[in-house]
Design a protein that fits this description.
about 350 residues; 5-stranded mixed sheet; about 45% helix; binds adenosine-5'-triphosphate; binds magnesium ion; binds fe (iii) ion; Gcp-like_dom; acyltransferase; iron ion binding
């Protein structure tokens, strides 16, 4: 099927077009520059930017794909989770399109879409697979039985998300927002063993209750204390070393727990998705440690890891292919949609 997907859960207005698992267009307009001076995404600003970008982004996607809107077989849209006002813009646009074109509408889960997008690059998903989903708002380990109908959470962060930790530590180091890519770049010239930062929820006691959960707020505080102590002593802060050591601590925990979960579940395929999956150290470390255990790793290219419309179209396409009934035309946007709700009714 030819599916158009719309994504507006945060600050990216994404419109993707796929045919089956073939990506035809992935147009993204980001309002990230408008949020940079606030150090985080401002919901009202994001919603307004989605309104302004929606029609031009749809037009750009159709042009790239070389299709007309009436060629589309179905419309898919992120119905949650995300910022309520931002989601509403995408959902309203998708409803208008679906109704005016007389095409079925599929309201889909943003997290499931971060998993489904890998199909556009590496072909059909191995199912079951273990998914490590790491972004600005989420850090979860998921057992994916069927990406269109059955995803079970094994664990999640109990405080900050991994991307949030990257963004906060970047801010401490005076790097621009969003900080993930800047930490990644700085870390390349620093030493990952310069500073021994804490690995959250890895002590024997914590593992009893939180084997597959994450915690990054203690790490963020440890970095803040270390930087403050340096500044008090009047010595320069070695930004590259702090970035590399911090990044190592985050990746170490993410990879360790993901591989532990895969082993515990008897799953041989690990999929990593979400914005933080763009991190070069995370990709290399996962690859290296998984191969020692005979576990295969799939990570989409960085441009498909961060929020985009192609991921929504990819999940929509799989849902259509499996014959699930479409959502109703009055489907709601749900800012706290759980990952177990993959398709809105
Ligand atoms: P959600 O959590 O709802 O999926 P999001 O806005 O966080 O939404 P994403 O685009 O998936 O959306 O992820 C953005 C996050 O990914 C930011 O926190 C950003 O710093 C982080 N990120 C992007 N590139 C890198 C990188 N190379 N290394 C580390 N983190 C990165
Ligand atoms: Mg974003
Ligand atoms: Fe996301």
């Amino acid at each position: 099927p030819l599916v158009l997907g719309i994504e507006t859960s945060c600050d990216e207005t994404g419109v993707g077009i796929v045919r089956g698992h073939t990506l035809l267009a992935d147009a993204v307009a980001s309002s990230v520059d408008q949020h940079a001076r606030f150090g985080g995404v401002v919901p009202e600003v994001a919603s307004r930017a989605h309104l302004e970008a929606m029609v031009p982004t749809i037009e750009r996607a159709c042009e790239t794909a070389g299709i007309a809107l009436h060629d589309v077989d179905a419309i898919a849209v992120t119905s949650g989770p995300g910022l309520a006002g931002a989601l509403l813009v995408g959902v309203a646009a998708a409803k208008s399109l679906a109704l005016s074109l007389g095409k079925p509408l599929y309201g889909v889960n943003h997290l499931a879409a971060h998993v489904a997008v890998d199909q556009l690059e590496h072909g059909p998903l191995p199912e079951p697979c273990l998914a490590l989903l790491v972004s600005g708002g989420h850090s979860s380990l998921l057992r994916v039985e069927d990406v269109t109908s059955s995803i079970n959470p094994l664990g999640a962060t109990i405080d900050d998300a991994a991307g949030e930790a990257f963004d906060k530590v970047a801010r401490l180091l005076g790097l621009p927002f969003p900080g993930g890519p800047h930490i990644d770049r700085q870390a390349a010239s620093g030493s990952s063993i310069a500073i021994d930062f804490p690995r959250g929820l890895t002590s024997r006691k914590d593992l009893e209750r939180h084997r597959f959960d994450f915690s990054f707020s203690g790490l963020k505080t440890a970095v803040a204390r270390w930087v403050e102590a340096r500044e008090r002593s009047g010595e320069p802060v070695p930004v590259a070393d702090v970035a590399a050591s911090f990044q190592e601590a985050v990746c170490d925990v993410l990879v360790r727990k993901a591989l532990d979960a895969a082993s515990a579940e008897g799953i041989e395929d690990l999929l990593i998705g979400g914005g933080v999956a763009a991190n070069s150290r995370l990709r290399a470390m996962a690859e290296e440690r998984a191969s020692q255990l005979g576990i295969r790793v799939r990570v989409p290219r960085p441009g498909l890891c961060t929020d985009n419309g192609a991921m929504v179209a990819a999940l929509g396409s799989s849902i259509v292919a499996r014959g699930h009934a479409p959502s109703s035309y009055d489907l709601p946007a749900d800012s706290s949609l759980p990952v177990t709700s993959i398709l809105a009714v």
